[in-house]
Fold:
Amino acid sequence: MTEQVRAREFHTGLGKPLSVAVACDEQVVVAAGFLPLDELVARAGYEIVDDDLGAIGAHVQAWLEGEILALEDVPVRQRGTVFQEAVWAALRDIPVGGTLTYGEVAQSIGYPGAARAVGTACGANRIAPFVPCHRVVPAQGGVVGHYGYGSDVKAALIATERSA
Structure:
């Protein structure tokens, strides 16, 4: 059975919308990303029943208006492998404005040498920016990397967080 969600697309200053889907049966984000709402829902296979995100919508709006910490404690639900879930949890522990390298994330979850696997887990994250994979950067410096929504969006998110 297709999961029903409440979902909405928000305008951002990043040249791409932020779409967010919240489970109907609980106040938890199940999908989000910098792409049009129809793409987000199609990718996840959800059925939209409403666009009222409740308190989560207020958090997103506050974040878009500059309250940089507004998304930090919003509950999320995303299923993956044990390794992916460990990576995603570690990403939520990276402080706003901070970054870690893929190798540092791997080390922090007890898998030294698994930097590439961390990158793969970041690529499988379907709840950006609530699970802030944009805070993971290459060891050689810069923010370039394979960010699913574009390196320009990743750089803008990092710059915004660092200037707050």
Remarks:
- Strands lie at 4-10, 18-23, 29-33, 47-50, 100-101, 136-137.
- The chain has a mean pLDDT of 94.
